[in-house]
């Protein structure tokens, strides 16, 4: 757990450290909706070839309403 800023910083560090290797980033969330986390998730997938697995939507509602699932 952590703040959105902490999660974003960690995700970007993964993209930086593992850009030359295969990498899977597993994120679990569901309590927030963050445009920044959406952008970072898209960046990691599209520019750094990181596979992002997102587990979200623990509350009533679909994953499309929560970050990073809605990226």
Series of secondary-structure elements, N-terminal to C-terminal: HEHE
For the sheet with most strands, the description reads:
2 strands, parallel
Overall strand count = 2
Number of helices: 2
Low-confidence stretches: none
Oligomer: single chain
Shape: globular
Radius of gyration (CA) equals 12 Å
Helix content range of the residues, please? 25-40%
The fraction of residues in strands falls at 5-15%
* Average pLDDT rating: 79
**Span between termini:** 19 Å
Q: Would you tell me the structural class of the helices and strands?
A: alpha+beta
What order do the strands of the largest sheet run in, or round the barrel if closed?
1-2
Tell me the layout of helices and strands.
Elements: H1 4-17, E1 24-28, H2 35-47, E2 51-55
Parallel strand pairs: 1-2
